């Protein structure tokens, strides 16, 4: 018990350091992992061999593989090309532009890292809005909210999904059959609400459409040949994700395979490409895995799960709903990756005590994904659009976000809760 | 070859409290690119370049996108004017800290200062930091090139 309390203390201190942003989250994670190992070795509950085993290589492989695809695709200008194409199709009509840019950002971020997607699409959005004489804020907010929502639909759409899939042995197809239908409804709810919230802004007529008409998407696509190559590999990878059960291959194998083929086929400057990989995220994951491994080995989580189990077994559906809202509430203010990592062992230990936890994994995914929409700091995409907008004449303030993002978060969580309750027997299977 | 011999001695200048609007009118009236900002003692306290005013209306995307060559028509941004509130603000809020040279500064050093600080004109001051002239890259360059032949 003492071991468990010490391990839990180290875990909570590390979470505090991560969330208080007193130091970089990766450094805080490494510190926590180190402390856990020191405590584990001194008290005899955890050692290096166990720590290495606790690192989930399939999660890391999947993330790294998809990151490589993105860093090779990024300099080709593909993201900007798609955004400008969408803008031209909108013919400068505000609502159509908002829907098209939101859809494009969502679809891209369902399969690729949504931080990169938003970083690359947002400046082009500002360009398009300035050419048309629109305030870019509604469009930027919509892109962040819709891409965060859409990201929940696929296994590779958001890092928490990758973590949940690895912990619960969920496949790409499980996400498509369980998460996607609910997310589609939530996404349209968000879009419908955004339409209503930005009613006034969307009534504006473009001051001048010439600038938009003069844009040629082809000029933006700097390297069409390599863009095509990466997209072909990505398409192949997505097909293989569908077939992962049939072929008995893991998502990590598919992603790393796709990354290798891309590097061979495109031959980018390897040093430059590798330098753009977000290594700090990968190291952060490793450190959290090591830390959670230590926590698990003390058995404290089973004790904690015991107390939660009473609610879970007396009313499983209510527990799922509470979990969804608790995770969403936390994700609105805190990074959803460590939150997911903190909840995974709790659900795992519930499962170990014989509770059917299948639906809880989905509650965790929905909460972690939708919660981020609630505040300006809720997700990385929100932070990116807000900080980019600070460099424009129409900065997105906390007040603006609370008026637009928070209602979207509450409405999507509510709709998802209703669907979660209706589909509870199916999600529990 | 020193700055004293090639600089213009009659310099149009403004005060820190001059409004942005008045400064814009001064640029237009005298068809110049740089306005030294002088305090009551005629000491150089800043410089205002025409580009500082143009950048007030330059679209935000110009600073965000790596490449804007494909933007052939600036559309609605073309007609933009700063609002009257901004135009009424004193130039002290947007002027740059002064880069200057002494009268006996060599021409090559003066040219290097202009290049390094991305200036159009280099203010010239006396030992008391009072403005005595201004020299453009053309003034400095032609004076310098004259010695090549």
How would you explain this protein's 3D organization?
The complex is a heterodimer of chains A (429) and B (149). Chain A has 429 residues and is mostly helical. Chain A contains 24 helices and no strands. Chain A has helices at residues 2-20, 25-43, 48-54, 57-73, 78-90, 94-111, 114-132, 137-150, 159-168, 172-197, 210-214, 217-220, 224-242, 244-247, 251-266, 270-276, 279-298, 300-314, 316-333, 336-352, 358-371, 380-389, 398-422, 424-428. In chain A, α1 (2-20) packs antiparallel against α17, α8 (137-150) runs antiparallel to α10 (172-197) and α18 (300-314) packs across α19. The radius of gyration of chain A is 22 Å and the shape is globular. The relative contact order of chain A is 0.15. The mean pLDDT of chain A is 91. With 149 residues, chain B is α+β, with helices and mostly antiparallel strands. Helix content of chain B is 29%, strand content 16%. Chain B has helices spanning 20-30, 50-54, 61-64, 84-87, 107-116, 137-145; strands spanning 34-38, 44-49, 101-102, 121-125, 131-136. Chain B has a three-stranded mixed sheet. Chain B has a two-stranded antiparallel ribbon with strand order 1-2. In chain B, α5 (107-116) packs antiparallel against α6 (137-145). The two termini of chain B are 15 Å apart. In chain B, 29% of the residues are buried. The chains are: A mainly alpha (429), B alpha+beta (149). At the A-B interface, α7 and α11 of A face α3 of B.
């Amino acid at each position: 018990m003492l071991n468990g309390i010490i391990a839990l203390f180290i875990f909570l201190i590390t979470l505090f350091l991560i969330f208080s942003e007193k130091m970089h989250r990766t450094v805080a994670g490494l510190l926590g992992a180190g402390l856990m190992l020191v405590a584990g070795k001194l008290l005899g509950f955890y050692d290096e061999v166990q720590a290495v085993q606790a690192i989930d290589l399939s999660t890391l492989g999947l993330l790294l593989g998809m990151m490589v695809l993105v860093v090779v695709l990024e300099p080709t200008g593909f993201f900007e090309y798609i955004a400008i194409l969408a803008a031209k199709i909108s013919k400068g009509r505000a609502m159509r532009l908002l829907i098209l840019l939101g859809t494009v950002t969502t679809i891209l971020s369902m399969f690729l890292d949504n931080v990169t997607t938003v970083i690359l699409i947002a400046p082009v959005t500002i360009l398009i809005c300035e050419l048309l004489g629109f305030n870019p804020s509604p469009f930027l907010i919509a892109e962040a909210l819709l891409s965060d929502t859409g990201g929940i639909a696929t296994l590779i759409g958001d890092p928490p999904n990758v973590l949940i899939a690895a912990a619960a042995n969920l496949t790409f197809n499980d996400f498509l059959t369980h998460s996607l239908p609910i997310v589609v409804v939530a996404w349209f709810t968000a879009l419908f609400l955004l339409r209503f919230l930005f009613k006034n802004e969307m009534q504006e007529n473009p001051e001048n459409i010439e600038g938009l008409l003069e844009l040629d998407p082809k000029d933006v696509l700097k390297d069409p040949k390599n863009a095509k190559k990466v997209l072909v590999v990505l398409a192949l990878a997505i097909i293989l994700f569908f077939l992962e059960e049939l072929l008995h291959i893991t998502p990590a194998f598919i992603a790393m395979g796709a990354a290798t083929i891309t590097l061979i086929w495109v031959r980018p400057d390897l040093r430059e490409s590798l330098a753009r990989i977000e290594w700090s995220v990968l190291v952060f994951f490793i450190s959290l895995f090591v830390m959670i491994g230590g926590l698990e080995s003390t058995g404290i989580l089973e004790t904690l799960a015991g107390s939660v189990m009473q609610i879970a077994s007396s009313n499983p559906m209510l527990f799922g709903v509470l979990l969804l809202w608790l995770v969403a509430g936390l994700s609105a203010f805190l990074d959803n990756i460590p939150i997911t990592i903190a909840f995974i062992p709790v659900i795992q230990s519930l499962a170990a005590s014989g509770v059917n936890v299948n639906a809880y994994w989905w509650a965790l995914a929905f909460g972690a994904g939708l919660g981020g929409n609630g505040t300006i700091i809720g997700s990385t995409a929100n932070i990116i659009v807000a900080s980019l907008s600070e460099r424009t004449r129409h900065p997105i303030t906390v007040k603006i976000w609370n008026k637009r993002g928070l209602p979207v978060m509450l409405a999507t969580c509510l709709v998802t809760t209703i669907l979660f309750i209706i589909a509870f027997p199916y999600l529990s299977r | 070859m020193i700055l004293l011999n090639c600089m213009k001695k009659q310099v149009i200048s403004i005060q820190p409290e001059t409004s942005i609007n008045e400064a814009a009118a001064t640029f237009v009236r005298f068809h110049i690119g740089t306005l030294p900002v002088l305090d009551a003692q005629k000491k150089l306290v800043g410089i205002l370049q025409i580009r500082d005013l143009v950048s007030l209306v330059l679209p935000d995307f110009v600073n965000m996108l790596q490449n804007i060559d494909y933007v052939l028509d600036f559309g609605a941004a073309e007609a933009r004017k700063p609002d009257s509130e901004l135009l009424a603000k004193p130039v002290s809020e947007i002027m740059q800290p002064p880069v200057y040279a002494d009268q006996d500064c060599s021409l090559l050093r003066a040219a290097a200062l202009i290049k390094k600080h991305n200036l159009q004109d280099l203010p010239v001051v006396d030992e008391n930091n009072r403005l005595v002239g201004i020299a453009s890259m053309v003034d400095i360059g032609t004076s310098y090139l004259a010695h090549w032949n």
